[in-house]
């Protein structure tokens, strides 16, 4: 199964190296950095040192400007966040979630694990678009996991859940639209909801995060995204006529 | 259960700090160092920095000269070694071993996890005295786990095997709307889709059954049904204005 690790606004180059090593040791190699602090982070000395031989992961890694770019092709988004958010996705432990995701009849096509910055974690709006917030069970009063350590644990649990090395990738039955397609549809729908006076842009009241969660659960296919965009378009056209 | 982490001839002070943090985050605090490279390793800057707040673990840590001293009071010894030794204890994966140890009628009184030096791992004679050699399943061809990362994984698996810290704060179960509420919403939505000229009642093309399936997967709550009915209402009102 396609698996991607996405680091958002990472500060410490050493951590990026540690993450590359943690991924490689569990057989993963798709690393994307969103706005890292250092533009040359993939070539910095601390990075190379902490990567300790996982140079191919660094070589393959991409640096992008937006989370959207980072998530291209991914359909199941796992935030890693210690503190549950209101209106956010359900908070689950990794093992519990992984066994459920893989046990369900329709496993996702691509799974992305999102990690926020060392100091501030993930932004609410980035958490909102995820299907789940993975919370690694840690000691009460000291939940301070190092970034590379967190990646190590998630990579390990995910690899184990996948059955270890060489396990056959389960076949997706219903092709699920990727995160970009879903967020594009939601933006379209948001415009339509504003146009029909259901959504007040001045007082959005978490409507879009809520709809995002609802559609995450529905896990729409590309065809369904197409239908939903058609609905949004018809709403906008009707609203347009109403204005004349 | 008493749990101790024993680091043998560790070279890098940063790793000692990383180990302290990795232990603490999983609720362990008994750390013993056998002949570390630096006598003042517990007070070095890299150590404190990587410990990132796990200072109490460092403060409690002991430095000793021999493995014997380090193992005082421990009854079940787990080596961590990537390569199996002839004549050594059985090599097992952590999860497999932990569930067996804890499932057996007579769980040990104290468990020690032994970690060799970064460069050379554990000496054969140290491995020989252990009850098991734990081998963390890693990618073929790249089994190079950082020391703190290895401690993190073992501490996590052991904590989980011990029953964990419980799942993240259980969220209120999301009450799912009943079938009648869902079909009522779908009828409302159908009228709205006709009103905005998206659905042609003469050629409905399975649109509503498809949306029904999509919303079945989303399993909306009563509150979400309410939101969706609000959307349908706003669409109908807008369509009404468009006709005037």
From TrEMBL, chains A, B:
Principal subcellular localization: cytoplasm
GO molecular function: methyltransferase activity
tRNA/rRNA methyltransferase SpoU type domain span: 4-156
Gene3D superfamilies documented for this protein: 1.10.8.590, 3.40.1280.10
Entry's localization field: Cytoplasm
Subunit structure: Homodimer.
NCBIfam families per UniProt: rRNA_methyl_1 (TIGR00050)
Protein name: tRNA (cytidine/uridine-2'-O-)-methyltransferase TrmJ
Species, as recorded: Hydrogenophaga laconesensis
């Amino acid at each position: 199964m396609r698996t991607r690790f996405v680091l958002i606004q990472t500060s410490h180059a050493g951590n990026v190296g540690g993450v590359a090593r943690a991924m490689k040791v569990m057989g993963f190699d798709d690393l994307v950095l969103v706005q890292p602090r250092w533009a040359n982070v993939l070539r910095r000395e601390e990075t190379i040192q902490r990567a300790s031989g996982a140079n191919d992961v660094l070589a393959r890694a991409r640096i992008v400007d937006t989370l959207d770019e980072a998530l291209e092709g991914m359909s199941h988004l796992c935030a890693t966040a210690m503190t549950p958010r209101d209106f956010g996705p359900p908070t689950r432990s990794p093992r519990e979630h992984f066994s459920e995701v893989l046990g369900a009849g329709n496993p996702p096509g691509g799974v992305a694990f999102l990690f926020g910055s060392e100091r501030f974690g993930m932004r609410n709006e980035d958490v909102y678009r995820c299907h789940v917030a993975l919370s690694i069970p840690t000691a009460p009063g000291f939940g301070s996991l190092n970034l590379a350590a967190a990646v190590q644990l998630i990579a390990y649990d995910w690899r184990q859940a996948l059955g270890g090395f060489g396990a056959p990738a389960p076949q997706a039955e219903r092709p699920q639209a990727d995160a970009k397609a879903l967020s594009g549809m939601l933006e379209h729908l948001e415009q339509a909801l504003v146009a029909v006076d259901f959504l007040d842009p001045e007082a959005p009241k978490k409507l879009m995060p809520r709809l995002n969660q609802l559609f995450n659960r529905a896990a729409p296919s590309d065809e369904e995204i197409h239908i939903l965009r058609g609905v949004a378009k018809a709403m906008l056209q009707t609203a347009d006529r109403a204005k004349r």
